[in-house]
Amino acid sequence: xxxxxxxxxxxxxxxxxxxxxxxxxxxxxxxxxxxxxxxxxxxxxxxxxxxxxxxxxxxxxxxxxxxxxxxxxxxxxxxxxxxxxxxxxxxxxxxxxxxxxxxxxxxxxxxxxxxxxxxxx
Length: 121
Prior knowledge:
Blueprint: E1 12-14, H1 15-29, H2 34-41, H3 45-53, H4 60-70, H5 74-90, E2 94-96, H6 103-119
Parallel strand pairs: 1-2
Helix pairs in contact: 1-5, 1-6, 2-3
């Protein structure tokens, strides 16, 4: 019996997850806990967690307020996100606007994104 192989999905990361990862990295760099940041922003820790994970999409007001709390600017965060997007695309990862693809492909893409952050590129 010949086994049929299924093609692997191309790794995928959503742009909101990429921005959220950058915000989480910045928050950790300045020594803030997720719950502390959420309280300062007037939201629950779980709501803030969904923003950092990309499960919820940030609106412009939220991005501005979070950046102010983290001592950075929306322009800097979006600039960094665009740079990471370019790096990910060169590594064969699709960066998409929102979740609508295979969850396994997203998991692989997020793993590659985490590896990029850990490598310090």
